[in-house]
């Protein structure tokens, strides 16, 4: 009898140790997994467009803007990490999502506004990543075509089949139940991002050596020879926005922080270290890749170093780089979409409590191992439907990257700057019109102006694309 009681106590203790203070399964994340999530989200294939961005701004403004935005993103992200718990930083109530944090600190109509902007951006990013991955896959086909037929061959390739392939892969990976279980995918994706960034950097260095010097100018692409004054303005605004939004990951910061294991130390301290490491690594790569690409090609820097065919050889190295981009985007898609998946599933379970279709988990034993996998029919159908919809929209609007840029422009200020600052003011009880309050408001207003300017540049890009728009006819 004593043995059975002891065993029962031991089992109860083990069960208790399997859960966190909020009753959820024990979180296992740390600084390294959080950093992997951030780097996967931040260093997208957009890093390869930074050479074009610097070409519009020049040797002075380009690197300066990168460093300024690195500082802004790190600072506002640090403010946001403190909002993960309401009250005490170790024992206070957890905010599982960005919207939960806004609800706790600000409330009212701001919650609905924040939720709409956040999830609209996540939806747009999913479409943008589908398009970006298809561009890299078509680049592999074109690279081999150029190798066989010469650089002057048109080598047109339709992107539609590749979007479908990417969609099928995402349907499979989207069945991973939650954010905490995709840490391995983020690590693989982060490694891939360093792979293709390093290849782009290496090719840029080789090109500079071949040119016998550094190309480019202090003020960027010159008016008259290549662009008109109006085009110079639009391109500069777009470049400014590209650099600003290349750093943006605040919309999923709280969700990443929710994967970190319980204190001590507090999740905020761990997340601040992960943010500092990630932003520092990101900035280092951004400046290296952007500046070296501009040094190699000057005013003629392509929109993407690896798919714009500034480089043609060695073709096999370009293939490796573009394959790495695709693998990275597979992971990045999941990092951005998991918060959206979780939101819809939580809403459905609250709207229809007790509905077995929504809540029942069907355990299936895996044939190749002793482990089993839980399938939820609602999760299976809804996530599959989401991927199918984003894939179809990508095929309909292959220039959707410009619209995603517009969504990013509209989302950058509220999600990355405004809400973190306002929540920090409430949390720390910053006195209105004090020096700190004034400085925070100046920072917020400056970023609002940048968002509006970038939105104008993105709209100009959309208008330009619509002039040659042909549904389902995208080719590169």
Automatic annotation (TrEMBL):
Its main location: membrane. One of its GO terms (cellular component) is plasma membrane. One of its GO terms (molecular function) is symporter activity. The keyword Coiled coil does not apply. It holds the Pfam family Aa_trans. The chain crosses the membrane at residues 31-50, 57-76, 116-140, 182-206, 274-295, 315-336, 380-400, 406-426, 438-463. GO terms for biological process: amino acid transport. The keyword Transmembrane helix applies. It is found in: Cell membrane. It comes from the Eukaryota. Keywords: Amino-acid transport, Cell membrane, Membrane, Symport, Transmembrane, Transmembrane helix, Transport. Belongs to the amino acid/polyamine transporter 2 family. Amino acid/auxin permease (AAAP) (TC 2.A.18.2) subfamily. This is Amino acid transporter transmembrane domain-containing protein. The lineage of its organism: Eukaryota, Viridiplantae, Streptophyta, Embryophyta, Tracheophyta.
